[in-house]
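Extended Data, panel c. Modelled sequence:
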Amino acid sequence: MSLRPTIETRKARPTLEGAGVKLHRAFGFQDPTELDPFLLFDDFRNDHPEDYEKGFPWHPHRGIETITYVLEGSVAHGDSLGNLGTLGAGDVQWMTAGSGILHQEMPNGNASGQMHGFQLWGNLPSDQKMTPPRYQDVTAADLPQVTDDDGTSVKIITGTFWGKTGPVDGIAADPQYLDICIPPGQQKTFSVDTYRRAFAYIFEGSGAFADASPPSGVLLEKEVAGEELNIRDLSGDRTLVRFGTGDEVTVQAGPEGIRFLLISGAPIDEPVAWHGPIVMNTQEELHQAMRDLNNGTFIKPGH
């Protein structure tokens, strides 16, 4: 087994999106190869309705998948195919935009006015860019959760972990998407397939991820299989952690514990042509998508 080194930690940046929703973006619209097959990750968390209530009105998508995970409040959605629904606290929607869809997402707060959720964009390979759109809506009750003896709990959205498999399937990047909570002071190691790109996103508490080289401000060192394990400084709320290659990730929980998403997927390694909510392989495909939007043929017949 080999440790995945921590190659970067960075804070999510405040961003305005949709009709004026305040959110924090961990990555997106920069280098699409950085976390291939993932393109963008947003944390939409607000305590005040005026910061989110205008929502994300009608907009198109083509060539990607969007993964929405709601923690507090709800998100009402509708699309050009006539689908309507609402995601509640703990629910997940995995939307394959494929050949094209127009949809809207309108967040609503809980009884205290709080709204919190995440949206991840996954790229589609060229041979699936124009696949028919589809949804996988999963309720919180259908997401398996496993708990270790030390109190560590893992909710499995997709992929297999500790003998349980998440309900979302048939995804191009064959991803693993985990919601992990570790009690204060515990140190845990999680397996991640060597051939996947991987990142963590901390959103509660704090913790430190192991690195393969001695960093400044080392918190902890111990011998593991004859090698020194170095733990980075504590990283807290709204922090993205990018990992290098390897098949294990080790984290030391801080004094309040830590909760984070651990997400990995198989790289697509294809050219990316990207404009707003449309991601194709070539500029000509992007131009065709724009023509389709303008002439009313963006939604394919029968989709």
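The chain has a mean pLDDT of 89. This feature is highlighted in the accompanying rendering.
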